[in-house]
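Task: sequence in, structure out. Protein: DUF3995 domain-containing protein.
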Amino acid sequence: MSGVRRMHGRTVEGVPRWAVIAAYAASLTVLPSCAWRIALGFGAPIGPFTGDVDDMRGDVPAWMPMWGYTILLSVLSEALAFLAVGLVSRWGEVFPRWVPLLRGRRVPTLAAVVPAGVGAAVLTLGTLTMALTFDEFTAPDGGTVHLEGWRLGLFVASYGPLLFWGPLLAVATVAYYLRRTRAPLPQT
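Result:
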C-alpha cells in the first residue's frame, strides 16, 4: 500500500469515494489501447495493416523505430491520463516539493479545472467521433482499410474503454471544483 501511496500521493480528505473511483478509472481507461498500440508497433498482426510494420509509418520520422514511437505515444497518453489522479490527490491541491518555484504553494483551482474540463470535453467529443468509424482506418497511401473479425473485436476491446476517459475525467473535475470552491462552514 505504501508503494501505491508513494506513486499516486495521498487522497485528499473529504473526497467522495465516487470521485476517487472516477479519477483512477479515468487513468486506467488508456491502458488497453496502449497495450494494443505497443503490440502493433512491435509487428503483431492485430491491426489494419498486417504487412511490414514500416508500411504503416505515415508521418512518423524515418529515424524513429515504430516500436519506439508506439512506446513514446503510449507513455505520453498514460501520463496525461494519470493527471486525473491529481484531482483527488494532495499533489493536485499543493504543488509537490520537486516543482521548482512553486513547491508547497496551493494549486490555483482554475489552473487544474480549466485544462481538465477542456480535456474532458475534447476527449468525450473525440472518442464519440472515433466510435462512429471504429472499423475504418486511413492507410498511409490515403486509401481506406477496414478491420474485420477478431481484429475488429480486439480493437474495440482495446479502444472501447477510451469512450469513458472524457466522462470520468469530467466527473472527477466537477468533484474537484466543488470541493475546492466550497465555502468553509462557519464555526459554532
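Residues 1-5 have pLDDT under 50 and may be disordered.
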